[in-house]
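Budget justification aside, the reviewers requested a transparent look at the raw inputs and outputs of the sequence design task funded under Objective 1. We therefore reproduce one unedited record. The lines immediately below are the structure tokens for a 341-residue chain.
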């Protein structure tokens, strides 16, 4: 069925489109009789204003862009859940895109979102991104931007993160307190800020507890996958037969480690302990369950939208923009993959 327009109402009533528009908006220079006729006909014809046209007139589209590295990653899917919920509650739609950790794709997607005239952008920076001119260009265009999870201190905008150093410190401290001394770290790529922060937390807690840091016990996992966990657990145990624990960048990597240990008859946690990160569903269903860190992913999505909408409103009112850094708490969840302290 064809959508009813202002022109249709004007034609039926024999009046101008301008008069119809004014009548619907309650302008006082339109007679009460005309206004009543327009309102009744609009209701009978189920007329609905063109939201896109209205929003463009108000210089807004009521849409926000969201760019994440991986949609299939449980952490990011939960972030999306939080973003969509908060956005919808405030009358916004979300365009969700995946950069696949590619700097080139990230740049193209941000350009596309600008072309689509989104009101603001949420971004978790791709691992391949090492320079940030494209983000600075967004800020020069006064595009509201909020970074979350994977952020950089060099870009001056609002951010939502966790304290990755502290979370890693607490996880490795649990291993040390349970008696582990030879702890391998399966970390993320060198360019990923949160991977670097977790590595720093790992190094710090070792040194503070009198354990010499050995770079040979650190392995780079570019894929964050179960296969990475299997591959590097095998490599690490071949190179260091006395490893008694693994601290990994994600629960999927930890699951790969666990599978390798189980298949080779290495008892967990009696011989080797395993710690993951993210508190994804997989950490709860494997045997034994994996000790991990919960990152408050849904809340991170909500907080990011809240900061973005605050900036959008501030810019609309032509007021000075203030940037905020929200750091959400984490929670270490101990399961059967680590020994009791």
């Amino acid at each position: 069925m064809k959508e009813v327009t202002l022109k249709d109402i004007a034609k039926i009533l024999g009046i101008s489109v301008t008069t119809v528009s004014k009548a619907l908006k309650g302008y006082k220079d339109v007679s009460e009789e005309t206004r009543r006729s327009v309102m009744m006909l609009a209701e009978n014809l189920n007329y609905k204003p063109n939201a896109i046209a209205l929003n463009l007139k108000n210089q807004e589209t009521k849409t926000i862009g969201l760019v994440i590295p991986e949609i299939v990653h449980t952490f990011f899917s939960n972030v999306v859940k939080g973003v969509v919920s908060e956005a919808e509650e405030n009358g916004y739609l979300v365009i969700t895109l995946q950069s696949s950790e590619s700097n080139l794709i990230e740049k193209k997607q941000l350009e596309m979102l600008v072309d689509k005239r989104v009101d603001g952008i949420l971004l978790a920076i791709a691992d391949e991104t090492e320079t940030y001119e494209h983000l600075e260009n967004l800020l020069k265009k006064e595009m509201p931007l909020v970074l979350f999870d994977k952020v950089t201190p060099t870009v001056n905008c609002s951010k939502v993160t966790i304290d990755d150093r502290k979370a890693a410190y607490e996880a490795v401290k649990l291993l040390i307190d349970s008696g582990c001394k030879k702890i391998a770290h399966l970390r993320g790529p060198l360019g990923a800020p949160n991977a670097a922060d977790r590595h720093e937390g790992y190094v710090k807690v070792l040194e503070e507890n009198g354990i010499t840091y050995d770079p040979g016990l650190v392995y780079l996992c570019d894929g964050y996958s179960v296969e990475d966990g299997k591959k590097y657990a095998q490599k690490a145990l071949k190179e260091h037969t006395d490893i008694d624990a693994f601290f990994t960048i994600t629960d999927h990597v930890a699951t790969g480690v666990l599978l390798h240990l189980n298949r080779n008859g290495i008892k967990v946690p009696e011989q080797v302990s395993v710690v993951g990160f993210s508190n994804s569903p997989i950490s709860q269903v494997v045997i034994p369950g994996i000790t991990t860190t919960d990152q408050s992913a849904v809340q991170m999505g909500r907080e990011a939208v809240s900061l973005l909408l605050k900036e959008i409103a501030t810019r609309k009112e032509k007021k000075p923009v203030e940037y905020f850094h929200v750091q959400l708490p984490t929670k270490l969840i101990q399961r059967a993959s680590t020994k009791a302290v």
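Residues 182 and 243 are 5 Å apart (CA to CA). The first strand starts at residue 63 and ends at 68. Computational costs for records of this kind are itemized in the attached budget.
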